[in-house]
Write a structure and sequence with these properties.
Elements (H helix, E strand, L loop, with lengths): L1 H16 L19 E4 L3 E2 L9 H15 L3 E2 L2 H10 L7 H10 L4 E11 L2 E2 L4 E3 L2 E10 L4 E11 L23 H19 L13 E2 L1
Parallel strand pairs: 1-3, 1-4, 2-4, 3-9
Antiparallel strand pairs: 4-7, 5-6, 7-8
Helix pairs in contact: 2-5
């Protein structure tokens, strides 16, 4: 009888020890800046993609302009470009973006990667090869380098007989072949609207001078 009781006493601690650890408490929500001021870094091109040298800076300028149109205060993208070139950026990641943004007085950064940049071969009415563009952009809170928004675009323009539902929204009323820059303008306008909404700013892309560029 004593042996049985001893066996039970040993078994109970073993069962308790096998319990899974309690899950960690949920992370508190990220506090957004009350007055966001955004630095858009030059988009980083994928290795070997053959994009023009200024393609990444061009995308940053286009996105910064659309953010400003949506009512978001932005740092002059050429100022951001200069700060990014002077900084020892290392890996291209949210902490890199936060460090550069802090240098230019911004509390939010945009970090982008350019995966494909292919211009059309042909004209607006007939092409041998259509324009194609792919990128990803992340909205970064400078205070803690947390990603607070993410958007991506990946599209090769299709023939006008394609299913309209498969077309990006900004292309559905068009009737011609776009250049890759025109494709970027339309795509980044939508990215700017999404990021403005993520920052709590009512987007009105295409409006007159809603934001400020410093």
């Amino acid at each position: 009888m004593r042996a049985a009781a001893l066996g039970l006493a040993v078994a109970v601690p073993l069962v308790v020890a096998c319990r899974p650890p309690a899950p960690p408490p949920p992370r508190p929500p990220i506090a957004l800046p009350e007055r966001p001021r955004v630095a858009v870094l030059p988009f980083h091109p994928a290795e070997g993609m053959g994009a023009p040298d200024d393609a990444g800076a061009l995308l940053a300028r286009i996105l910064a302009a659309h953010l400003a149109e949506s009512g978001v205060a932005v740092v002059d993208p050429d100022v951001v470009l200069g700060a990014a070139q002077l900084a020892d950026t290392g890996a291209y990641e949210p902490r890199t973006a936060a460090r550069v943004a802090r240098k230019v007085g911004a509390n939010v950064a945009v970090l982008g990667t350019l995966a494909r940049w292919q211009d059309r071969v042909g004209t607006a009415w007939a092409v041998e090869k259509p324009a194609s563009l792919a990128y990803q952009a992340k909205l970064v809170n400078v205070a803690d380098a947390a990603v607070i928004g993410d958007d991506h675009f990946d599209y090769t323009q299709q023939t006008l007989s394609s299913n309209l539902l498969d077309l990006p929204r900004f292309l559905r009323s068009g009737g011609r072949w776009l250049t890759v820059r025109e494709l970027a303008e339309g795509a980044l306008a939508e990215t700017g609207d999404r990021f403005a909404a993520a920052l709590g700013v009512a987007a009105h892309s295409g409006g007159a001078g809603g934001g400020r560029t410093h």
